[in-house]
Amino acid sequence: MRSFSIQGKAISHGAQRRQRGFTMFEMVVYILAASILFAAAFDRYREFPGEAERANFQAILAQLNTAVNLQMMRAIVSESYSRPSELEGGNPMDLMLTPPGNYVGAFNGVDVSTMPRRVWYFDESTQELVYLADSSENLYRTDAETPMPIDSVRFSIANVYARDGSGGWEGMMLEPVYAYRWAAVPLDIPAPPAVPGADAL
């Protein structure tokens, strides 16, 4: 094997080759490994839109809870305890500075089958805020003995009163009309196969 001396150090021809980067063989193996990983990731991430929808739902729900809590704090600070009573059964979206882009309005007696999915709307007939899910494979109603798949979730503004018999007002909250669970979609990605010679780069 040929070797060359640079500043008193011997460098073999093979080491020089590794320092120059990938060989053609290593490049082909790397491309094949990356292709396998991409194919596996694409197969797993076909469910990603469902997880993205769930994350968007949770983000908007957090904003709605913040808006309701702000109204509660204002009532406490100003001692305007009639305000929470006025808000009970109202539209939570009216409390937000800017409703989300997928809020489509308030309706009375809407035909859900004609509504688009991934949207919020306020049902005036029941005084409930409704979210219509699109990817509902992991969405369940949990207030029954056996979890039941559902494709919508409902919320309402409700006042909370003391349970000690005094009937004193304790606060206000945005609560689900029925218990539910929207489970996360598993997104485990398999580890890429080892690439020969990659440890020498």
From TrEMBL:
Bilayer-crossing regions: 21-42
Q: Spell out the InterPro entries in the cross-references.
A: N_methyl_site (IPR012902)
Keyword tags: Membrane, Transmembrane, Transmembrane helix
What name does this protein carry?
A: Type II secretion system protein
**From what organism does this protein derive?**
Pseudohongiella nitratireducens
Q: What is the lineage of its organism?
A: Bacteria, Pseudomonadati, Pseudomonadota, Gammaproteobacteria, Pseudomonadales
